[in-house]
């Protein structure tokens, strides 16, 4: 079998809408059993990439393989081994959980036992309920159950937790980790950095149709050379260059009177900061320290926040 090690091989995929290039030459590989995240702001091209991989959109250039199957030439084979949960799924609102799963199961020559799937997705109490009466989290779990019905090798999840409350998000995280434990390969998109950090073995950061970084969450953050962020506010503006001179500072950011200093040596920088402030008689208010995150990685690489529209 071609590409024995990687379950997914993506090679220079391009998608254009008229003059606009939504995905501009994306290349990556996903190993068997890996949870792989596409992280990026709105409009980055995450859904478009995923839709090309599952055969819902045709790439203008490039190709991809799922296992040994070419998405351009062997789409039917591809569909047999993948399960897909899309960003906006319309379900048959009047069917019950059990009925829709039985219906989806009947599309395949072989399917997983429905009761087991329902149990797995924590929907046992809702099995006789109509879909329209389910909560957002329950609907997402049902969408995943539908994606799993034919026991696929690879599962694609497009923003599985967007719009869910914190508890429903955690439940979904547990489900993703459970599927990983069973050896499934999972590709998910998200714009939540905490989610990407918790779930993903590796993350591709996408921006404006391109991959701008690809690594484990830990390495992405470590490569910032700024393990810690120290934030505070001051009562009058101070030249940013002054803050950059504080010992150990690798980068200084300032929005009006709020300052963020990044450092690889928290203790050195804090000591030096307090000394500098007292020498110049500047009061540091609301002083806080935190560990750098993927959000900091994105800001560092693009100058923009992940959450900006
Ligand atoms: N059918 C289409 N016609 C024209 N442009 C499109 C079409 N579908 C998507 N786009 C554009 O392609 C770009 C990428 O969209 P895509 O849905 O892949 O982004 P995304 O990263 O999934 O964003 P989000 O986080 O909002 O889901 C966007 O600028 C979008 O407006
Ligand atoms: Mg999307």
UniProtKB/TrEMBL annotation:
Q: Which UniProt keywords are given for this protein, alphabetically ordered? A: ATP-binding, Cell membrane, Membrane, Nucleotide-binding, Translocase, Transport
What GO MF annotations does this protein's record show? Answer: ATP binding; ATP hydrolysis activity
Matches recorded under Pfam families? ABC_tran
Q: Which residues form a coiled coil?
A: none
* Protein origin, superkingdom: Bacteria
Domain (ABC transporter): give its ranges.
Answer: 8-233
Q: Give the UniProt subcellular location, in the record's own words.
A: Cell membrane
Identify the Gene3D superfamilies for this entry: P-loop containing nucleotide triphosphate hydrolases
Question: Per the annotation, which location comes first and is thus the protein's main one?
Answer: membrane
User: What does the entry list under GO cellular component?
Assistant: plasma membrane
Name of the protein in question = ABC-type transport system ATP-binding protein
